[in-house]
Amino acid sequence: MSILVLADLHEGQLAGATAHVVAAAKAIGGDIDVLVAGEGVQAAAEAAAKLDGVSKVRVADNAVYAHQLAEPMGALLVELADGYTHVLASASTTGKNVLPRLAALKDVSQLSDVLAVDSADTFKRPIYAGNAIATVKSDDALKVITVRTTGFDAVGDGGSATIEAVDTVVDNAQSSFVKQELAESDRPELGGAKVVISGGRGMGNGENFKLLDGIADKLGAAIGASRAAVDAGFVPNDMQVGQTGKIVAPELYIAVGISGAIQHLAGMKDSKVIVAINKDDEAPIFQVADYGLVGDLFEILPELESKL
Amino acid sequence: MKVLVAVKRVIDYNVKIRVKADHSDVDLTNVKMAMNPFCEIAVEEAVRLKEKGVATEVVAVTVGPKAAQEQLRTALALGADRAIHIETDERAESLAVAKLLAKVVDEEQPGMVILGKQAIDTDNNQTGQMLAALTNLPQGTFASEVTVDGDKVHVTREIDGGLQTVALTLPAIVTTDLRLNEPRYAKLPDIMKAKKKPMDVKTPADLGVEVASKVSLLKVESPAERKGGIKVASVDELIDKLKNEAKVL
Ligand SMILES: Cc1cc2nc3c(=O)[nH]c(=O)nc-3n(C[C@H](O)[C@H](O)[C@H](O)COP(=O)(O)OP(=O)(O)OC[C@H]3O[C@@H](n4cnc5c(N)ncnc54)[C@H](O)[C@@H]3O)c2cc1C
Ligand SMILES: Cc1cc2nc3c(=O)[nH]c(=O)nc-3n(C[C@H](O)[C@H](O)[C@H](O)COP(=O)(O)OP(=O)(O)OC[C@H]3O[C@@H](n4cnc5c(N)ncnc54)[C@H](O)[C@@H]3O)c2cc1C
């Protein structure tokens, strides 16, 4: 078996997700190459070369791959996929954007959001917002897979893979990058944080989200939100946790003023310990919470912050 | 320009699903079905493009069993002008759906195709991207804003770190995210009118597409059930439990 992993980048640097995808590749078994594509990505390539289990890092460093737009990335992957049995990427917005193009052009199906590897051709993936887990077998010659990173523990940093330049350059006259507004934050990434504290509609407004800041600082936590809080404009979209937002599985998840709709639970119910703070003692969130505290968040949050 | 919208019949998003006792699949007998929420947003966006005078015609298409015509009628009631039903009782997965839609794109030559970013049953998030690749068209996925500007469309995309805007040449494929718009409700007179709007029925064979896939579903299970825990009476008790019982602080 020989596996190509598409590296995830965050502002040109290697994103944490890649180490989880390499772990999924190790679970499949075989030779593992990592493709780092973008513009000015040598540092990311060097970081990828250190990941445990990687034999070769292939680097496509060219302006056409800047921002990893779907059209040139798909075309590049089609050029490089020959000889591989599996192509993997994380189920990030980049992986989801790019990989189906490869699958379609190779006339194979894609398995999305794989969270466990049974064998080289059989995988588990969530369907219906994680309310059922399907075991699927692919008889396609090339398996194209996006990986749910919370399903695989990241590999360590012990490797020393060779780095090889890829000089394939594709044309792209169809799409161009206009602008990007990335949220700036000193806090850990939602996907990688050990503690996540999320606010819902119960927070009332964006200003009140500050009540979560002090607690997040003390716990080294990332801050998340329900869709209702995002839709109401309290906080930006990249903070949404759930079926259609980020999937998180931290050691500790604290849900504040969140009712616990199935679409929200889909994004956090694999957390190790769940705490719910809600004034409605019948809120469905309590059915999944290890520790529930019924009460007014405006009283509880300041007290919690001062006592931590 | 003509806008093609793909809509999918799925389980209603409020329904709590059950896995069949023999683990062969999810039990869909007698459950309420509806239009995939992301597809409602796609229809709404297409209808708004028409209301703004950017689109001239909105064509809704679905791949699915006879009953999926209900969702096409919903799309017509929301403002689509005509519908195409590609009828099949087979399990048509994303690649097959994308191939069928590619044939429709060939025939209809739309200026834009709008799809949902994912269907809430299989949660694949693939069909639009596959369609874009098969038709060799650019894609703007997970859209929260779509602005047509001459022969280009600007699509603002919801990406992991925030928002990204791309400019695409038309024709282009767009997939919708939740915040693109708020779909309207169909009014009774529109529902009545929708019954008279044209609906074309074809089969995958008519379009020369093989629906069978090389992926087989071996088993469907319920996820490990989380047991509810306890209620604590105070912040002090909560901190104590997190420190000494759960050991996460
Ligand atoms: C296709 C689709 C996809 C979706 N995807 C997602 C997703 O990815 N993520 C997501 O989160 N949702 C998603 N949703 C939305 C989901 O169905 C719910 O509407 C949403 O999660 C509700 O958010 P909430 O819990 O913050 O708000 P509500 O349900 O309104 O709950 C607010 C809670 O706050 C409590 N509260 C209010 N005031 C206080 C106070 N002072 N002190 C303590 N508690 C208080 C209330 O008791 C209540 O339980 C999706 C929906 C659809 C249809
Ligand atoms: C494990 C598994 C089990 C399945 N079991 C069944 C089953 O029992 N019965 C069954 O009928 N199907 C079944 N299917 C097929 C499945 O329901 C979907 O039609 C198929 O997987 C397409 O993926 P998706 O809808 O998740 O695509 P996504 O890529 O998530 O869909 C995105 C968008 O593509 C468009 N789209 C997708 N499908 C259609 C369509 N059919 N018509 C028009 N537009 C569409 C919509 O705009 C949608 O919002 C199964 C698929 C899998 C993988």
TrEMBL record, chain A:
SUPFAM superfamilies: Adenine nucleotide alpha hydrolases-like, DHS-like NAD/FAD-binding domain. Belongs to the ETF alpha-subunit/FixB family. The electron transfer flavoprotein serves as a specific electron acceptor for other dehydrogenases. It transfers the electrons to the main respiratory chain via ETF-ubiquinone oxidoreductase (ETF dehydrogenase). Gene3D superfamilies: HUPs, TPP-binding domain. It comes from the Bacteria. Heterodimer of an alpha and a beta subunit. The keyword Metal-binding does not apply. Pfam families: ETF, ETF_alpha. This is Electron transfer flavoprotein subunit alpha.
From TrEMBL, chain B:
The lineage of its organism: Bacteria, Pseudomonadati, Pseudomonadota, Gammaproteobacteria, Oceanospirillales. The electron transfer flavoprotein serves as a specific electron acceptor for other dehydrogenases. It transfers the electrons to the main respiratory chain via ETF-ubiquinone oxidoreductase (ETF dehydrogenase). Its cofactor is AMP. It comes from Vreelandella subterranea. InterPro entries: ET-Flavoprotein_bsu_CS, ETF_a/b_N, ETF_b, ETF_beta_N, Rossmann-like_a/b/a_fold. This is Electron transfer flavoprotein subunit beta. The keyword Nucleotide-binding does not apply. Residues 23-211 form the Electron transfer flavoprotein alpha/beta-subunit N-terminal domain. GO terms for molecular function: electron transfer activity. Heterodimer of an alpha and a beta subunit. One of its GO terms (biological process) is carboxylic acid catabolic process. Signal peptide: none annotated. Keywords: Electron transport, Transport. Belongs to the ETF beta-subunit/FixA family.
